Amino acid sequence: MSRKTRITQKNFKVFCEGDTEYNYIDEMRRQKKFSIALKAVNMKGGGYSNFLEQVRTDGTTNCLAKFIIIDGDRAISEDGEKKNLRELLEYCILQNQSGRIPHFLIVDYPDFEYIACLHTPKYKGQNVAQYMIRDLGYKSVDEFKADEKVYNVLNANGNSYALMLSLLRKENCFVINNYSINKKQYEIKISTIFDWEKLGRKGSNINEFFEVLNSFHT
């Protein structure tokens, strides 16, 4: 009897800042049926240099693309981090120019907590910490960050990532990845542009993450 051929599934790898993003992405992976595996990597903070080291040394077997989702406020508030962000950005650009594994650098400014609030129709730019306590019912931002069901909270009872995407200030994006997808060939071509003058403005290019994932939705 001949052995069955084992089919190895292609995957997206998502490197994210901490628990909130990891819990969100992992729950989304469980609920949605993508035709490609979604693997979240919780970086537990550590700064942009930590991201660069992890992304650089991480394997690429069966990896279709890597998403590096970071908060932009660190580059503004911490000495030396702007230089580290530049190095991470330049590495991603070089990888994309090589034509090998696409690297999508996603920058949320100021942070993912702001992006989370955009999921809710009542959020109109209020202080994020106060909003999470008064309107989302958490005791603290730390409690929000530790909530393993954060994806469900942000995508139920009128809340949704579709609303968030509609409210993103795309004109403020520090980074934009222009890409094209050949789904049949499992191929993504990408080029990255950036504008340092926009770093520090509220916005995000996280729409690219959802767009690429949804293109592989079954």
| Bulk shape | globular
Structure annotation, total helices: 10
User: Biggest sheet, strands in spatial order?
Assistant: 2-1-3-4-7
Radius of gyration: 18 Å
SSE order, one letter for each helix or strand: EHEHEHHEHHHHHEEEH
How far apart are the termini?
33 Å
**Helix content bin:** 25-40%
User: What's the total count of β strands?
Assistant: 7
Stretches where pLDDT is under 50 for at least 5 consecutive residues are none
Structural category: alpha/beta
Beta-strand fraction estimate: 15-25%
Mean pLDDT: 93
Main sheet record: 5 strands, mixed
How would you describe what is shown here?
This protein has helices at residues 19-31, 48-57, 73-77, 81-98, 112-117, 128-134, 141-146, 150-153, 161-167, 207-215, and strands spanning 11-16, 37-42, 63-71, 103-109, 175-182, 187-194, 203-204. By secondary structure, the chain is α/β, with parallel strands linked by helices. Helix 2 (48-57) runs parallel beside helix 4 (81-98). The mean pLDDT is 93.
